[in-house]
Amino acid sequence: MTENIxxxxxxxxxxAKTNLVVDFGNTLTKVAVYQSNELIYLEKTSLLTTNLLExxxxxxxxxxxxxSTVIEIPADLRQYLDTTFKFYELTHQTPVPVKxxxxxxxxxxxxRLAAVIGASALFPGEDCLVIDAGTCITFDFIDRDAQYxxxxxxxxxxxxxxxxxxxxxxxxxxxxRNFEGLIGCTTEESILxxxxxxxxxxxxxxxxxxxxxxxxxxxxxTGGDMNYFDKKLKSNIFAVPxxxxxxxxVILDFNVKEK
Length: 259
Known about the structure:
Elements: E1 2-4, E2 18-24, E3 29-35, E4 38-45, H1 50-60, E5 64-69, H2 75-84, E6 86-89, E7 99-100, H3 110-122, E8 128-133, E9 136-142, E10 147-155, H4 157-166, H5 187-213, E11 218-222, H6 226-230, E12 238-239, H7 243-258
Helix pairs in contact: 3-7, 4-5
């Protein structure tokens, strides 16, 4: 499966420097091209190939590349990246433009770190709470001095549906999100009410707790379920798709400037 989000003009020549940003997930890989801080191309694919990367190289002429991955990079892709670009792989030892106060940086998800760096770049000098509503729901806090403190992790909507089905003998597997009520009148509706209302209440509670401690905090949400929660949360929040890619691009620029 491959999905083009933005379509490039393969004949266009860019005057400004362009970056290649790759975020390897367990099932889906996002490939982006940035010109300065602007996202000019985004592709989502279940199978990243050297052919695709070569097409992007010929279309956009990126000199620098960064990759974040939760899986082992295939040998042919790693060799291509190593020999074609000035290439960085995000690890816990990669220099970043924030102070990381996490006590176990080697265990910190790269997407969590990249997301808070993206938020800090959007709102410099501001306290930020970043919510990534995906398979898991992560809350991450970075303060106005660009110090990342950590946060919390809880199951996302899909995981909660699956847990109810997998760890009980009779509850069905529910996947859709189109229930707006409070009282479920069937077992399926009861699951929808419990999961959707419960998760929304959890997010509102966590946001309120941060707002009480850090008045004026910016709340940023991203991730696959972003649009669902964006409409239901009580606080003023900023919905930012592709926040992780944005943060990876900031990290890449920071390392290029440091060289």
